[in-house]
Amino acid sequence: MRRWLAGHLPAIALFVMLLVAWQGAVSVFALREYILPAPVTVLKALAGDEIPWAAHLWITTLEIVGAFVVAGAAGVVLGVAVAWSPVLARALVPFLVFVNTLPKVAVAPLFLLWLGYGVVPNMLIGALIGFFPVVINTAVGLTQVDDDLVDLGRVFSAPKWKVFATIRIPNAYPYILSALRVTATAAVVGAVVGEFVASQKGLGFVIMTTQGSMNTPVAFAALVWISAVGLAVYGAVVLAARWIAPWAEPSP
Amino acid sequence: MTRLIPVVALAGLLMAGVVAPAAQPMQKVTFALNWFAVGDHAAYWVALDKGYYKARGLDVDLQNSKGSGDSIAKVDTGRADIGLADSAVVIAAVGRGAKIRVVGMVFDKTPLNIWSWKDAPIARPKDLEGKTVAAPPGDGQRQVFPAFAKLHGIDQSKVTWVNVEPAAKIPALAERRVNAVADYTTGLPFYEKAMGKGNPVMMPWVEHGFDMYSMSIIASETTMKDQPKMLRAFLEASYTGWRDVMDNPRSALEIFKKRVPEIDLGLIEPNMLMGLELMKTERYARHGIGWMDDKKMCASVDLVNTYMGVPKKVDCHAVFTNEFLTRVELPASMR
Questions:
Q1: The CATH number of B26-109+213-334 is which of 2.30.290.10, 3.40.190.10, 1.25.40.10, 2.20.25.90?
Q2: Contact A212/B136, CB-based, under 8 Å?
Q3: Which residues of B, range 141-160, sit inside 8 Å of A by Cβ?
Q4: Which CATH architecture has domain A54-248?
Q5: A246 or A134, which is more confident
Q6: pTM of the model
Q7: Local confidence band at B5 (pLDDT 50, 70, 90 cut-offs)
Q8: Contact of A203 with A56, CB cutoff 8 Å
Q9: In a 3-state reduction of DSSP, which class is residue B329?
Q10: Complex-level ipTM
Q11: I need a surface site. Which of A98, A175, B191, B329 has the fewest CB within 10 A?
C-alpha cells in the first residue's frame, strides 16, 4: 500500500493541484457557471438525480466495449492477412491507409444515415477510428521475427500456418497489445462522436442535451463519467496484457 | 487607351486618400450570426454591401456560429459584440447567469414547427404521441416543447426525441429514420429538395395557439453600457438592410450571393421569402421593424421559466429592451 502510494503520489498531487487551481480560478475570476463550472458544482451534478446516469453509462460503455472488440478482431484479421501474403498486403495496405485518413467526424453523419441511429452504428464508428494501429502493429509483429526461428520451422518442414501459430503470432503479442491500448482510447472517442451526431441515450447524448440548455455542470459531469469508462477500459487492457504476455510489459 | 484606365483609377484612389483622413476612424464590430449562411442573414450582408454600417462609422465583421448557444457564449464572453440567437435559448442562458439581452427582434411571428411526411402526416399536435422526433438539442422547438405539449395535452412520455446535429435534421426525415423533425417553417425549400415537392407536411405552432419570440439580435450588458451609440447605429443599419431585403428581395439575393458564393440561391430564395412572411405583422407596421411587445416577451419568458428548468426564474424586463432601436418602417410591399 505504501509503495503503491509512493509510486502514484506525483500523479495524485498534480491532479489535486489542478482541481484546486480550477476551483480557485472560478472563484477569483467570478466565471459564470455555464462557461466554466467549478469542480464542486460538477461534483454536485454527478451526485444529483437530475440525470439517470446508470442508463446512459450502460449504453456508452456498451458502445465503447463493442467498438474495442470489433476494432481488435478486425485489426488482427487484417494484420494477419497483410503478413500472410505480399499480394494481399499490396492490395490491402493502400486501401486501409485511405480509410484511416478519412476524417471520422465528417464520415459519422453519413454512417448514421446509412445504418440508422442506435448502439451498433456508434460501435462501428468507434471501430473505424480504432482498428488501424492494430492492423499495422499485427503485421509488423508477425514479420519482425527472428529469422533463425523461422528457419528452424522450415528445417522441420512445418507448414506455413503452423509457423504462424507457434512462432509468428506469439512474437506479435507485445505489438498487438500495445496497439490495443491505443484502440481502447480511440473507441471512447468513436462512441462519443457517434452520440454527438445522433442519439437517444448515452453520455454523449447527455452532453449535447445539456449544452443545448446551457446546463454546463451536467455536461462536465458526463465528461467525468466518460473518462472514468475510458480509464476502466484502458486499465482492463493493460491487465489483460500483463496476463497474456507478461514478458511484453513495457516500462511505465 | 486601355493604359489610361489604371492611371485614372490610381488618381481616384489618391484623391480618396486625401479625403479619407477627414472621416472618423472606423469602429470594429464583431457580429456573431447564429449559423452558417441562411436566408435570414441576407439583410446583414446587404447592410454591409451598401455601406450602411460604414456610413455610421462601423467596420462590421460577420462571423458564423454553431447554433444559438454558441453565438450567445461569444457575445457573453466578449468574443463578439452583438449576435443572433433564438430567444428561448437567450432566456434560458440569462437564467443561468449570462449577462446579455435581446435588443431587437428578427421574426415577429414564430417559425417553430414540426415536419413530417405526407403519407404519415402529423397535422395535429396530438398526432405526435407514439412518434419519434429528431431535433438538435439546442434548438428553440426542442427547448420549449414541454410548454407546447402541456398546451395541447400531449403525453410527453409517448414522444421519443432523437438528438441530431443540425445538419442531420433533413436527412433524418428524408431517409425516414424518424417520423418527424422539429424545425423552422422557413426550411420548406430544403425539405422539398430532399423529400420531393409536395411531400413535406408542416405543423406551424403559431397555428396551434403557440406564439413565442424566436430569432433575435442580442448584445451583452457590457456593450449596452459602454457602447450604446455603436449598438444603436448597428441596429439602425441592420434593420435598414432588412427594409431593403423586403423592398427588393431579388437584388438582396444578388448581393448575398456575391458576398457568400457558397449559397445555393434556389434554396436560399424561398427560405428568405418565408422568413419575410414572419415579419409582415401589425406590430412591425405600427412600431417599426424589430420592435418587441412587452406582453408577448413576458409570455415567452413565462414559458421558459415554467417548462425549461432554469435554476432561477427570469424577469422578462431583464431580458429585452427596445431602448436601442431607431424606428425603421416596414416598406409598403409588406403592409
A1: 3.40.190.10
A2: yes
A3: 142-143, 160
A4: Orthogonal Bundle (1.10)
A5: A134
A6: 0.80
A7: low
A8: yes
A9: coil
A10: 0.71
A11: A98
